[in-house]
Design goal:
The protein has helices at 15-18, 22-25, 30-40, 70-74, 113-123, 148-157, 161-168, 201-205, 215-231, 233-238; strands spanning 45-49, 62-66, 100-104, 128-133, 171-176, 179-180, 246-247, 251-257. The protein is an alpha/beta fold. Strand 3 (100-104), helix 5 and strand 4 (128-133) form a beta-alpha-beta unit.
Amino acid sequence: MDERTRDGSAGDVDYGSVGGGYADHRRPDDRIAARVAEALGAARTVVNVGAGAGSYESRTLDVTPVEPSATMRAQRPAHLPPAVDAVAERLPFPDGSFDAAMTTFSVHQWSDAAAGLREMRRVARGPVVVLTCDPDLVRDFWLYAYAPEVLDTEARRYPPIAELAGALGGRTTVQPVPVPLDCSDGFNEAYYGRPERLLDPGARQACSAWSFVDEDTRTRYAAELRRDLESGAWDERFGALRQQPTYEGSLVLLRSVPD
């Protein structure tokens, strides 16, 4: 039996509590979307697992979204198809139902990532595409100097890349995804050169790892960042990032095709 919250969230985050403003801050970035589209190749039918509010769903493909959280399903815009209420670990589709399968910023929130990926492989005839973060690289980001517990949480939640590749089987490639300076998708590293954005509680709430620390800790982390921004200490250490057009951090794209 699925262990789901009242909202329907099936992983380690209750999006009924933290997902209300997600769509305001997590808008898909066209340059990242282009990499996802390229990885899907010639697919016409695609299942998007952990689809959320619809980020990175192509309007030109026949997409079947799957999302267990009612809060996230409610934020899907009218031009996108409604999402199927199901979890990654038990997809309600026959074998080989789709040309391809995709998931973006979701696999770390599943109760059993390996089982979910095996399900994606089962229902997809062609590529399975996973946009995720490499836990070995998460702590390399400057935010670790201000919010170590947040990034420690992220590093623990993201499955190791080798484990993901093993669950997918077939032939799997892993490519780093550069994050543009003006990235519209507000995950933590999207603000690598715009640190002031992380002073916004809404921006922090849209990154689920922040929900794993209490309000007093979140407030303290933000106050320390604000102090260094006002004093110029942040710019002394990291200011060159404000002019850096892209940042190559922990974001990676896995693409697996059957043998």
